[in-house]
Design brief:
It is a single chain. This protein is α+β, with helices and mostly antiparallel strands. It has 3 domains: 94 residues; 139 residues, GAF domain (Beta-Lactamase), CATH 3.30.450.40; 167 residues, Hypothetical protein af1432, CATH 1.10.3210. The chain is flat and about 115 Å long. 28% of the residues are buried.
Length: 476
């Protein structure tokens, strides 16, 4: 066995090694002097030394100690500089208020240790806030998803949005304000936690917090509201306001006010509000353009499906790609325009049922156990349940429910076989499998097109090989 020694410069070596080398250098000179005196004693039976030799020895000892002092002092100055740089970094991250607390730590090593503790605590707090934001997002999406199928009009949808967001953020009150046609007043369209009637349900646009949000077209967290503000009677601090943006126009403002537990709103809350406000603006505009509100629900469900997809960096774009592959296959089969539209819409919504699956299962890095697999398999039924009550989407139910069925009956949820599986569901299944295995995941890398085709051709008896070959033709 051969040992490899890595030569490292003194400047780049560890502090412990530097200290060891310098301590050795400081100690060796006095030891050598003592050894010299000892040899003198051995030679003569007594120590006889001239004044010149003694002066030389004394000079060498002083020089050795001096060199060691300078070197060790330089080393310690480096530690102090590192501490100062670390303090400056902490101040830029945590703010100046963290520095006095750290300065109480005593010597530089203690300060350095406390600095790292502060950074670690800050990172842990960020992780906790991120996890809380993810849970809040999941809660919002789940409640909206459950309520979509029972809504009769856009007003029900807006009330559900306001209620869900208010509860998720543990706020006292939620309000959705819409601009009137003349865009001179804001009307309370939906509220939760407080009722508004007559003149109390409107406010004139003028300089104030609502006007600031409309002008900036960005969400804001306001901790104090001027009593002279035109919306002081409607809103209360602290409040998060997010504009309902459609393209470059502002349709209104979504707001949550007060905090039940006395905490402050965070930037994560602000971002979540802004995302929901953007999707709400789309729903509002669609309701204005369509007499049939069910199209609004379809767009909203699609937005929710994309939101579920966006939670996993590895699956972003999956719905669009599956829709594209499915449409290519349908065109090659010369299916009717109606079937192609049904297949495209089903592809966009085929994973909507994952709203009802918890994050610990959706994002698990290792294989699912039996219970987790059973829960995951329910997403097909959950997806069907979400879209079934909507009359214009009922043609998608069979495709969404059965896109994981296998020709040999080993699929789910109904164990259908062969021709018992709808043609559109068989097409969607193949497009879904191809995109899944050609996309990287946290636990594996993406397959090449050639390898993916080889794998799918090896699934004879499970998926329709005629459709596989059509997919191969469209990819070439």
């Amino acid at each position: 066995m051969r040992f490899k020694f890595k030569i490292t410069s003194f400047q780049n070596t560890s502090i412990l090694r530097k200290f060891t080398i310098l301590y050795f250098l400081i100690s060796i000179v006095p030891v050598l002097m003592l050894w010299f005196l000892y040899l003198q004693f051995l030679d003569h039976g007594q120590i006889t030394i001239t004044q010149e030799r003694f002066s030389m020895i004394l000079i060498m000892v002083v020089l050795g100690v001096g060199v060691g002092f300078v070197a060790l002092r330089s080393l310690l100055i480096g530690v102090i500089d590192l501490t100062q740089k670390n303090r400056n970094a902490i101040e830029s991250i945590l703010g100046p208020e963290a520095i006095p607390h750290i300065a109480d730590g005593g010597n530089e090593i203690a300060v350095l240790a406390q600095s790292f503790n502060e950074i670690t605590s800050h990172l842990e707090e960020n992780v906790r806030n991120l996890e809380l934001a993810q849970k809040t997002l999941h809660s919002v999406l789940a409640r909206v998803g459950e309520g979509i199928s029972s809504m009769e009009n856009i007003d029900s949808f807006l009330n559900l949005i306001v209620e869900t967001m208010t509860e998720a953020m543990q706020a006292k009150m939620g309000i959705l304000l819409l601009l009137d046609e003349g865009k001179k007043e804001m009307l309370v369209k939906a509220s939760y936690g407080k009722k508004f009637n007559g003149s109390k349900a409107r406010g004139t646009l003028k300089d104030g917090i609502v006007q600031s949000v409309i002008d900036s077209k960005k969400p804001m967290i306001i901790n104090e509201i001027d009593s002279k503000d035109n919306f002081a009677s409607i809103l209360e601090a602290p409040v998060i306001l997010a504009p309902l943006m459609l393209h470059d126009d502002v349709l209104g403002v979504l707001a949550v006010c007060g905090h039940k537990v006395g905490q402050v709103f965070t930037t994560e809350d602000e971002n979540l509000m802004n995302n929901l406000a953007l999707q709400t603006a789309v729903a509002i505009e669609n309701s204005k353009l369509n007499d049939d509100a069910e199209k609004t629900y379809f767009e909203t469900i699609s937005a929710l499906a994309l939101a579920v997809e966006a939670k996993d960096n590895y699956s972003r774009g999956h719905l669009d790609r599956v829709a594209q592959y499915s449409t290519q296959i349908a065109n090659e089969l010369n299916l009717s325009a109606e079937d192609i539209n049904t297949l495209r819409d089903a592809a966009r919504l085929h994973d909507i049922g994952k709203i009802g699956i918890t994050d610990d299962i959706l994002k698990k890095q290792s294989p699912l156990n039996v219970q987790e697999r059973e829960m995951m398999n329910k997403h097909c039924e959950i997806g069907e349940g979400i879209i079934k009550p909507i009359r214009s989407l009922r043609n998608l139910c069979d495709v969404v429910r059965h896109h994981h069925e296998k020709l040999d009956g080993s699929g789910y949820p109904d164990g259908l076989k062969g021709e018992g599986i709808h043609l559109l569901a068989r097409i969607l299944a193949i497009a879904d499998i191809y995109d899944a295995i050609t996309t990287s995941r946290s636990y594996r890398t993406a397959m090449t097109k050639e390898k993916a085709i080889e794998v799918m051709r090896g699934m004879k008896g499970q998926i329709d090989q005629k459709i596989v070959e059509i997919l191969v033709k469209t990819l070439s």
